[in-house]
Design brief:
With 328 residues, the protein is α/β, with parallel strands linked by helices. It has three domains: 92 residues, Translation factors (Elongation Factor Tu (Ef-tu), domain 3, Beta Barrel), CATH 2.40.30; 107 residues, Rossmann fold (3-Layer(aba) Sandwich); 87 residues, Beta-grasp domain (Ubiquitin-like (UB roll), Roll). Helix content is 19%, strand content 31%. A hairpin with a 4-residue loop joins strand 12 and strand 13. The structure holds FE2/S2 (inorganic) cluster. The site of FE2/S2 (inorganic) cluster has 14 residues, from loops.
Amino acid sequence: MESLETWMRTTLASVRDLTPTIRLFELQPPARRPAWSPGAHVRVRVAIDGRPAVRRYSLIDDGSDDGRLRIAVKLAENGLGGSRAMWALRPGEGVDISAPENHFELGLAAPSYTLVAGGVGITPLLGMARCLARTRRPVRFHYSVRNREEAAFAELLRTWLGEGFRLHAEDESGRLDFAQIIEPIPAQGELYLCGPIGMLEAARAAWQAGGRPASLLRYESFASSGHYANQSFTAVLPRFGRELQVPAHQTLLSALEEAGIEVLADCRRGECGLCAVDILACDAPVDHRDVFFSDDEKAGNRKLCACVSRPAGGRIEIDTAYRGPVPA
Ligand code: FES
């Protein structure tokens, strides 16, 4: 179920590779650029193997003031197909986008801010960094990348934040040490994070271990990042008498929708929990990619968020919350 939204046809004005795997897309709106605040995203209509799909991308504020909207997309060769579809776009093509929405708002009342980005998770945090730097609020920015080549916007951040910016290249210094990052944050200081699921889990665990209030940790996840590579699997729905083959490039939610099986959904990025289905049995590890369920709930393997989570191959028996007539 897609929420009501307004779509606008933009023109892809230009593309530019920021790193070997991250491409910047500059979209020219038909009229005035819609207003948006740091942390906002747009939904983008794409065609994956001829099928319509929608992807969300954070809006980038790199300080440009030319009326364009900017998004960046990391190419995931083994992903669900959205990034490949985006990378196939050429300047001059039309791109349908929604009005900007923001579920990752920057509050402006904290005594200090710590921003942590993992890879392409830099995109929503760039505008936050700019806003905090311009308003002279105390900010530390930790940017973790696989290697320095993958550090998009690092120079810009260095210019804006000076000593407050720290680049961590995993191939040089390993993964981020969240206990170390969190320790100097004052009691009411806020942490904003955007990165892959493993990074979110590490941050949440350290935040909790440090006795910090959950409300001061704000994050946004990549719907596509998991602990296992995407694999095809079989979803069995005994109540519907159906068996679905879900290919590697499709989510369980979209396979259910395509089969006419009703599932509630809203965020489609593992945050709201609305699309949760019951797991009746599964013969493969379940790759929980949501940030909705607790670690204990994930370990219990009784439910999964169909929009992002999936088994690592094999066969999973599930039941949905839908109790209406069984589709033909
Ligand atoms: S739709 Fe929100 S968690 Fe799946």
